[in-house]
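ok, trying the design again with the full structure, not the truncated one.
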């Protein structure tokens, strides 16, 4: 794939499924499940375990990952630049996984799986937090996800090109590769040491530091609940994560509240900053074109 800016793949178009979802605060609720499914692959889990700063700087890593994801969708000409930055960052990440196999972060199968996980998680979580997708929306989401993959430098030959091809590929990876890696167990643990947030105004940081011993346990339980609950059931089963009927009922109740509250929020509360700015710019340029 060419890295010339003149031939850079464009991000998904405004008005699509990802344009609405990627910057919506509901997308934040889906990300822990996607991350857990990524690191359930032994190669990805080993790379994150050895090379990530998610233990020492979880808030900074989360902020950078979230900004990166939004750039893929809302970044315009900078989307492909962010894709090149990510590939350069992962170029030196390699080692041996828990099965004794050599891995490299940019090996096509590994790199593609990290990206692929977003589609089944978003597809599953959407029905709880937004509404069940129509068949047309499913196909649109998958086509846009493939386009994001191109932005990230994933070749078409390394990703299934249709939904019909995706699900057998996905089930095969679940059957052959996925397991409860050490990083998965750490991400869903409720007793892992997590430092308080170190972003934001100083008074807020000091307050959070003071209250953190009280706040962390319920936040950790909520993170576990969402991580497992918004993961597709077949992925849960492949990893060996338990999910009860009572938890399912709680998740459905939670989803009803989210579906009722989020759509009526003002845009400044519903969308993250990069998404808000991109949506505002799109409206202004559209209005200017119509005025001509």
């Amino acid at each position: 794939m060419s890295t010339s800016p003149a031939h850079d793949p464009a991000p998904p178009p405004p008005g699509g499924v990802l344009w609405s979802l990627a910057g919506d605060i509901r997308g934040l609720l889906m990300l822990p499940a996607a991350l857990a499914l990524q690191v359930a692959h032994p190669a990805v889990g080993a790379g994150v375990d050895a090379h990530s700063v998610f233990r020492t700087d979880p808030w900074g890593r989360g902020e950078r990952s979230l900004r990166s994801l939004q750039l893929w969708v809302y970044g315009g000409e900078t989307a492909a630049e962010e894709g090149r930055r990510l590939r350069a960052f992962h170029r030196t990440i390699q080692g041996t996984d828990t099965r004794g196999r050599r891995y490299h972060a940019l090996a096509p199968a590994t790199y593609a799986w990290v990206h692929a996980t977003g589609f089944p998680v978003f597809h599953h979580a959407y029905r709880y937090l937004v509404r069940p997708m129509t068949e047309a929306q499913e196909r649109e989401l998958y086509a846009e996800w493939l386009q994001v993959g191109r932005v990230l430098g994933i070749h078409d030959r390394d990703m299934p090109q249709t939904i019909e091809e995706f699900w057998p590929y996905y089930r095969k990876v679940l059957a052959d590769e996925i397991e409860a890696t050490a990083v998965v167990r750490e991400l869903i643990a409720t007793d892992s040491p997590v430092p308080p947030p170190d972003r934001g105004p100083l008074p807020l940081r000091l307050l959070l530091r003071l209250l953190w011993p009280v706040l962390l346990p319920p936040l950790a339980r909520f993170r576990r609940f969402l991580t497992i609950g918004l993961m597709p059931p077949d992925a849960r089963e492949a990893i060996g994560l338990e999910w009860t009927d009572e938890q399912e009922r709680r998740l459905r109740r939670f989803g009803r509240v989210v579906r009722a509250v989020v759509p009526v929020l003002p845009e400044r509360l519903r969308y993250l900053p990069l998404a808000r700015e991109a949506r505002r710019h799109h409206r202004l340029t559209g209005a200017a074109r119509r005025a001509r």
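Keeping the full-length input from now on. The mean pLDDT is 92.
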